[in-house]
Design goal:
Shape: globular
Number of helices: 7
CATH class: Alpha Beta
Distance between the termini: 33 Å
Strand content: 5-15%
CATH topology: Undecaprenyl pyrophosphate synthetase
Number of domains: 1
Helix content: 40-55%
CATH architecture: 3-Layer(aba) Sandwich
Length: 246
């Protein structure tokens, strides 16, 4: 019997973020090239999107390529970008038909022109969809996001567009790349690593963290259901005590 039957449909998180880790180690364990692990991981992305659609999760953000990933071998980076473009070509029609919106966060100006064009096409062609917002973090880092927000706030203060005395939490959030996206209630990281690796540093302030030893290519629908059930069994207090929540 599937674990989906144990999920409380009234306690579904609105936004789930995922650090998709372990593709290379999965491939190495099977005696395959690292790129084969990334290709296998693409299937887990698709199944995760399907879970979100099944459960009514409205936002799914995946950490696809960090600013630190530029330190990887050039051949692997090129392979990842080819995989990204190929996946868009292969899946865009189905994504559109399933009413899924694609968004991108990160500094994509550093990506090759042909990659930028494919991403912009996917974003443009799905911008009116509203069943699920699938957010892809590319050339993204949490520190970059915060610094970029600070720079833009400073520029607007200098131009007298913004009053420094009126800057509050909502003001700051409006300058982040996720300004139109709610903060994640749940962060999932695969492969057994237990850190957030410069991902959504500001936005994860009150997120529940779920770590699994499964490598990303082995993160099936049932593994996703486990993460949701684990989340639902936690008490989210936001600084309050348990008695205040009842």
């Amino acid at each position: 019997m599937s674990l989906i039957n144990e999920i409380d449909k009234n306690k579904i998180p609105k936004h789930v973020a995922i650090i998709m880790d372990g593709n290379g180690r999965w491939a190495k364990a099977k005696g395959k090239a690292r790129l084969k692990g990334h290709q296998a991981g693409a299937n887990s992305v698709k199944s995760s999107i399907e879970v979100c659609s099944e459960l009514g999760i409205k936002f799914l953000t995946v950490y696809a390529f960090s600013t630190e990933n530029w330190n990887r071998p050039k051949s692997e980076i090129l392979g990842l970008m080819d995989l990204l473009v190929g996946t868009i070509d292969k899946e865009l029609k189905e994504i559109k038909n399933n009413n899924i919106k694609i968004s991108v966060i990160g500094d994509i100006s550093k990506l090759d022109t042909f990659v930028q064009k494919k991403l912009k096409l996917a974003v443009e062609e799905t911008k009116n969809n509203d069943a699920l917002n699938f957010v892809v973090a590319l050339n993204y880092s949490g520190r970059w996001d915060i610094i970029n927000a600070c720079k833009n706030i400073a520029q607007d203060c200098k131009a007298n567009i913004l009053d420094p005395e009126k800057i509050d939490e909502n003001t700051f959030k409006s300058y982040l790349s996720t300004n139109d996206i709610p903060d994640p209630e749940l962060l999932i990281r695969t492969s057994g690593e237990e850190r957030i690796s410069n991902f959504l540093l500001y936005q994860l302030a009150y997120s529940e963290l779920y770590f699994t030893p499964r490598f990303w290519p082995d993160f099936s629908k049932e593994e996703f259901y486990k993460a949701i059930i684990n989340y639902q069994n936690r008490e989210r207090r936001f600084g309050k005590i348990s008695e205040q929540l009842t």
